[in-house]
Amino acid sequence: MSRLVLATHNAHKVEELRRILGDAGLPVELVGMDSFPDVPDTPETGVTFAENALLKAHAVAAATGLPAVADDSGLCVDVLGGAPGVFSARWSGRHGDDAANLDLLLAQVSDIADDRRGAHFACVAALALPGGAERVVEGRMTGVLVRERRGTNGFGYDPVFVPDGEERTTAEMEPEEKDAISHRGRAFRGLVPHIAELLG
Amino acid sequence: MSRLVLATHNAHKVEELRRILGDAGLPVELVGMDSFPDVPDTPETGVTFAENALLKAHAVAAATGLPAVADDSGLCVDVLGGAPGVFSARWSGRHGDDAANLDLLLAQVSDIADDRRGAHFACVAALALPGGAERVVEGRMTGVLVRERRGTNGFGYDPVFVPDGEERTTAEMEPEEKDAISHRGRAFRGLVPHIAELLG
């Protein structure tokens, strides 16, 4: 059975991709970065999701000697020309401060009318082999930004994002419901044929 | 002599356009909004510079019965997909707080390498006649963002913007030097033939 490493310490992400690989019937053993405690995190110095995902995937493939999948994602707001984008986790200037990032975004678009508050979550998943081969897939979840937080599931901008066709924010949806339509789920599922091709 | 109103209370802007009209030899008397103290400011509810400039120009033309020029401008950062853009003056969520807006932008792009810090100031100038005719011109000044404030002239993001071909920030340049290459100067000069045509 081929081994594949997902460049994350997030157990939920590992489980999500593992389930997708299993549903696709791929004979692949997926491990996360907890199996490689000596490999440092890759700095996300890129200016696009694809650049960051590829940087991470190639770095982890080189460090582990295994095929590696990495993803980068963020929220893209229409009236902001796609920002915060790759800056989603540091939008307020403070990396990982979800509350500050969300407060800032709400304040920035507070004057924007309801019919212009379109946005999408984007996720780019990259697959890299130690030999250098690579594949990239983007997944999106489109919707609108609401004005007040609702819900406590998820993280980041989930409390103010309502996907198309939904009334609830992604923070009000069950994790499994969100995974079924999420940008990351779509990107991971899009990567399955490439994993089958390159690891088959 | 035709009268033309510039939709601003900023005396420096009025003087700048007046000089440009004079240099072009246009027989136009330019007045600012200080001549119309009862006309309220137009809310900038648009999501593009052109939309805001046209909103203001048409509102002022309707309120004064005179041809009106209005402009909207902002800083567009390459790696932010053109943001802050129309949100430049309220980037931090606090309208007009130049220091907070600048601090936030510097923090957001602090990880971005020197060769990827391209940006431009954009200005869209709109001319509107009471009868509804309109013209729109965009001017740009391209350059890069530096990491620390330098200089005390100008306003907004001037202390961290170095125009192409310059070593100084626009806050280190004399106002006349900046006007000669600025986005607003370019937009205003681009509007001159349209003013000549519609007011001639």
Could you explain the architecture of this structure?
2 copies of one chain form a homodimer. With 200 residues, chain A is of the alpha/beta class. The first copy, chain A, has one domain (2-199): Maf protein (Alpha-Beta Complex). Chain A is 32% helix and 22% strand. Chain A has a 6-stranded mixed beta sheet with strand order 2-1-3-4-5-6. In chain A, a hairpin with a 5-residue loop joins strand 4 and strand 5. The longest helix of chain A is centred in the C-terminal third of the chain and has 17 residues, at 183-199. The A-B interface holds A 43-45, 47, 79-83, 85-87, 90-94, 103-104, 106-108, 110-113, 116 and B 43-45, 47, 79-83, 85-87, 90-94, 103-104, 106-108, 110-113, 116.
Oligomeric category: homodimer
Low-confidence region ranges of chain A: none
Main interface by residue count:
A-B, 27 and 27 residues
Order of strands across the biggest sheet of chain A? 2-1-3-4-5-6
**Content-based structural category of chain A:** alpha/beta
Features:
Maf protein; 5 helices; 200 residues
In terms of topology, how is this protein built?
The structure is a homodimer of 200-residue chains.
Chain A: E1 2-6, H1 11-23, E2 28-31, H2 49-64, E3 68-77, H3 98-108, E4 118-128, E5 134-145, E6 161-163, H4 175-181, H5 183-199
